[in-house]
Amino acid sequence: xxxxxxxxxxxxxxxxxxxxxxxxxxxxxxxxxxxxxxxxxxxxxxxxxxxxxxxxxxxxxxxxxxxxxxxxxxxxxxxxxxxxxxxxxxxxxxxxxxxxxxxxxxxxxxxxxxxxxxxxxxxxxxxxxxxxxxxxxxxxxxxxxxxxxxxxxxxxxxxxxxxxxxxxxxxxxxxxxxxxxxxxxxxxxxxxx
Length: 193
Description:
Strand order of the largest sheet: 2-1-3-4-5
Number of helices: 6
Radius of gyration: 16 Å
Largest sheet: 5 strands, parallel
Helix content: 25-40%
Structural class: alpha/beta
Oligomer: single chain
């Protein structure tokens, strides 16, 4: 599959530290690799309603089909979310909640189509101890494992005030090589093999 990155901006602060870090990493991608940047705050989704066992399916929401098609068109999906209360932002979480719907409608092959693609994360956080980001990392890892996707990990940076992440030399160094790795297939810790 041709490499095509979908960057999903999921911060309530436009042009924030997480976006700066993601763009620094994306600058390292070869010119031939397509990049598409979508801002989930500008493509809002309604709160997800689980109607999988209801008599009638939950109707399609505004922006839903655009996001679903963009997701399916990408070989690599990058969730660009600051660390909010130790996990993903509400924008990122809502987007992933819609994957539950896409597993059954409008295309029951969504999971099969996502298998083998790569899921990545980029986040900036106020904490200096990266262990506090583990809930966010595990959310993305387990999502990738469930979907049969590869998991590239999460690029972490430190910064709470605007532009502060640019002072994080360790994050800047990691950004230069973050997308150069070939991510392994994600597996749940209890799976064999």
